[in-house]
Amino acid sequence: MSPHAEELPGFYYDPEKNRYFRLLPGHNNHNPLTKDSIQHKAMECKRLRLLEEEEKQNRKTTRAGLNSSMLLQKRQLGLLSSTSYCRLVHELKVNCMQRRKIEIHSPDSSVAGTNNFKIIVADVACERIFTVNDVEHGGCKYGIINLSGLGKESLTVEMYDNLYFTNRKVNSVCWASLTHPDSHLCLMGIAETPGCASLLPASLFSSTNPGDRPGMLCSFKISTAWSCAWCLNPQADNCFSTGLTRRVLVTNVVTGHRQTFGTSSDVLAQQFATQTPVLYNGCRSGEIFSIDVRQRNRRGQSWKAIRLFHGSAVTSLHLMEAEHYLMAADMAGKIKLWDLRTTKCVKQYRGHHNEYALLPLHVNEEEGLLIAVGQDCYTRIWSLQDAHLLRTIPSPHPSSKDAIPSVVFSSRLGGSRGVPGLLMAVKQDLYHFSYN
Hints:
By secondary structure, the chain is mainly beta. The protein folds into three domains: 1-57, no CATH class; 65-96; 100-434, YVTN repeat-like/Quinoprotein amine dehydrogenase (Methylamine Dehydrogenase, Chain H). It contains three helices and 31 strands. Strands 4-8-7-6-5 form a five-stranded mixed sheet, with no helix packed on it. Strands 3-31-30-29 form a four-stranded antiparallel sheet, with no helix packed on it. Mean pLDDT is 85; it is low at 27-31. This is DDB1- and CUL4-associated factor 4. WD repeats lie at residues 310-348. Keywords: Repeat, WD repeat.
């Protein structure tokens, strides 16, 4: 019988054994042949096959005939512009990235490799990575990884943590530039009910003497927090925003002044513009709207400016450098590029997988790449220019809800003289995909 056998209700066709098997309505210890177990087995077989191809370097470029000699020849003949040449070279680099495990050192030997990574977020210079790790007894542990030791030969990093903050579940985190670039961290999380918003000095995680630790700049209780963003525009200096249940809270951390904007839905994603004091918000309802934070929120006035709509909950936003375009992802797995001047979708990036998770987007305009990790634990890389899917990277660990990788991509991991590549944190491990 053909591998594309006809589906029969209540039965599963096994192409290897060329026969049908009855599906059980639920899990059964004696014969665990259920729809979920079949799908999990198929996904795991696919992941192992792709990992084997990765190790053997059997990957093929997604564009026919794309190779370094062809590119160089076309460039010399004048058939490729410098922009197109650079873009295609980056595509080749993405295809050639190889995975290597990073060794994590810590002054406290009990820290490294003991808790699963949940979130990693790089500062602007990509010199440090803030990490959120799940703790077995509940809550989260926070730390900072210094990437300065990430060389081309030795892949080692130093990790520092602060054991004082261990019992708060973190939903969202962003770097904040208060006294100097990336000097603090905004944390949004749940302590009990209600939740908690905190602004912590980054130096808190590098001091080895407990007596030298600076205190929190601010911390206050709020309803459940979903997202946060720091404003770098001088017209709204020292402000950070918190996306809450049916409202947006903008706080000036120096003066303590707060502005509240009521919404009809939970705010799951946020980003400030840098050229104007405008905050973009993505909601559970699928709506995306902007707020000019200079205006005062008066009852009866409409303060929403630009409004866009997705068909599902918006999980991530990224404002492009020129601030004419906004990238947004949702819980239906759709990634769209919106033109803010015409409020129309101009591109879609297909292949992303999401059903209910808050998954971030990573955009690198310099290399022309979009990176997103799906709920299926695959890391996908697209060309920003034509939305072509360039590479799909399987996770080194079996797919599960608690093993979705968190990634960082930069051409300078470790600072201006750092190494380029993709960092992937999954389970208790950190990996580097070399981008040379």
